[in-house]
Amino acid sequence: MKSKIVALSAVVTAMSLSFAAPVASAVDVGVGAGITGGEWTGGTVYVPIRFANWKIEPELTFAQNSEDTTYPATPVNNSEYESSDYTLGAGVYWRQPVGNSLETYVGGRIGYWWGDSSATYPNNPTAGYSQEDSGFYIGPTLGAEYFFNKQFSIGLDVSLIYRSGTYDYTSVSGTAYSSDRDNLYTEARTALRYYFGQQ
User: Fold this and answer.
1) CA 39 to CA 19: how far, in whole Å?
2) What is the mean pLDDT of the segment spanning 113-142?
3) HEC profile of the chain
4) What pLDDT does 42 receive?
5) What is the pLDDT of residues 90-125, one digit of tens each?
6) How many CB atoms lie within 10 A of CB 96?
7) Distances 63 to 1, 43, 45 between C-alpha atoms, Å
8) CB–CB of 166/1 below 8 Å?
9) What is the largest CA-CA distance in the chain?
10) From CA 47, how far away is CA 160, in angstroms rounded?
11) Taking Cα atoms as reference points, which of 127, 136, 119, 126 lies closest to residue 180?
12) CATH number, domain containing residue 137
C-alpha cells in the first residue's frame, strides 16, 4: 500500500508541475470552495489553474461526522460515533466555451485519501472500536461552469469515482485486523470560484 501511495503522490506532483508551468501571462489562477455530495459528503477547497483550453485543479476535501444514539429501553446500546475523512488530489480537464458566460469541461480526478472513525458505548465500555483507513481514488469527471463576470463563477460536476484502500480495525477488547476494500460510486460537486486574472 505504501508503494501505491508514493507512486500516486509522484503522479499528482508531476501533473501539477507540468500543467502549472506555462508563460505567466497565459495563466489564470483562482481559489474556490464547494460542497461535495455522494458516498462521502464534505467541503472542498480548490485552486483552479486555467490556460488555453485546459484546467488543472488541485483539491482538498474534508468531511467530519459525529452522532450520538440513545436507546431509552436498552441504554447498554447507547453509542457515540465520530469519523473524519480527507482527500488530497487534482483534476485535469479539457474545457470548451459555450457562449460568453458558460463553459463545459471533461477530464479526470486522481488523489489520495485518509481517515479515521471510532465508536464508544458509555454503558458498555468493552464494545467500542477504532478504525484508520487510507488509499487512492480516480475517476472521470464531467462538468459545467457559469461565469457571472470575468472573476466569479459557479460550477457543477459529476464524477464516477473508484476508491481503493486499506482499513485497520481495532476493538476495545483488543481484536485487530486489516482489510482491503474497493468502492465505486458517483459524486456530485458544486463550487464557487474566484479567478485573479482575466479570461
Assistant:
1) 29
2) 94
3) CHHHHHHHHHHHHHHHHHHCCCCHHHCEEEEEEEEEEECCCEEEEECCEEECCEEEEEEEEEEEEEEEECCCCCHHHCEEEEEEEEEEEEEEEEEEEECCCEEEEEEEEEEEEEEEEEEECCCCCCCCEEEEEEEEEEEEEEEEEEECCCCEEEEEEEEEEEEEEEEEEEECCCCEEEEEEEEEEEEEEEEEEEECCCC
4) 80
5) 999 999 999 899 999 999 999 999 999 999 999 998
6) 12
7) 23, 6, 12
8) yes
9) 68
10) 21
11) 136
12) 2.40.160.70
| Distance (Å, whole) CA 119 – CA 116 | 11
How many whole angstroms separate alpha carbon 64 and alpha carbon 41? 9
Number of domains in the chain: 1
- For 37-70, the pLDDT digits (tens) are 665 568 999 999 999 999 999 999 998 888 899 9
152-174 mean pLDDT: 95
Which amino acid would we find at residue 176?
A
What grid cell was written down for 146?
Answer: 457559469
User: Which residues form the domain of 65?
Assistant: 2-195
Report whether 31 contacts 193 (CB < 8 A). Answer: yes
